[in-house]
Amino acid sequence: MGRSKGDVESGYNVSHGSNNNNNNNNNRDQLYPTMIENPQLRWAFIRKVYILISMQLLLTVAVAAAVVFYRPIPNFFVRTTAGLIAYIAIIISTFLRT
Predict the structure, then answer these.
(1) Chain segment 48-58, per-residue pLDDT in tens
(2) Hey, where are the domains in the chain?
């Protein structure tokens, strides 16, 4: 796929001023004039990031659903000493990671 003017994904400004095709105007219309990477590589990276974020969100929903709908899990954290220690360890570990 080649670069075409008016294509934001390829790094060109959509609203360019004139239709003059000289080299100076071409550099001015680019959104990232110093970008030497292939735009397809950049979009592949963005897709991977969105996939990772989506997977993390799905895992979070699955864990939350298990805790909410499977009664022995919240009962473990509320009614046992080991559950209280595990709960405190989970809370503290989230602060230590940052």
Answers:
(1) 999 999 999 99
(2) 1-35
